[in-house]
Design brief:
1 helix; Phosphatidylinositol:ceramide inositolphosphotransferase 1; transferase activity; transferase; elongated
Amino acid sequence: MSLYIRREAAKLWKRLCAEISTEINLLAENWKYVLAGLIFQY
């Protein structure tokens, strides 16, 4: 049972890392728009 949990955790961790790296790349491209949106929101 623990092997199954470990394998699922590894898959989840890999997916989380992929999601985070994608988000960081998007933020690196669009940080100006995000910053402008935050400033002009108030």
